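Letters spell out the chain; backbone shape is given numerically. Take this protein:
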Amino acid sequence: MSAAFLRAAPAFPAGAVAVFRHDQRQEGEGVMPHLEFYEVDVPIHDTSRAQHGVHVFTGKASSVDEALARAHQVYDAANAARQAGLEIPGQQDGGWGARGVRDGWELDWAAAKASRWSNPDSWTRTKPYEL
């Protein structure tokens, strides 16, 4: 156990009860943000065949804004690698990554939407499947 987590107990009046957790930290001690799994849906279109779709990125982030930024970063890295004739980088920290880039397809980042990912096969779903 790190010495940073050990603290002297403050004085309490007789009969008072205090509960201390070993993982409590004071403000400014470098608390790591809680990362959730996010899905980023980016509308795409094929400029040569007038086809449309959605490209989905997934990974861990602390907020919607961070998820959008991470998805854009991995796409930009994949696109730059492809243009340079290099292998596309694999999965990065937090599970973010891109497996490929298709010529002629453009992503509409201004219309991208991010939200916490909900596993459609999870037994904890709040809504049952429609039959």
User: Anything to note?
Assistant: The first helix runs from residue 64 to 83. The chain has one helix and four strands. Residues 60 and 93 are 8 Å apart (CA to CA).
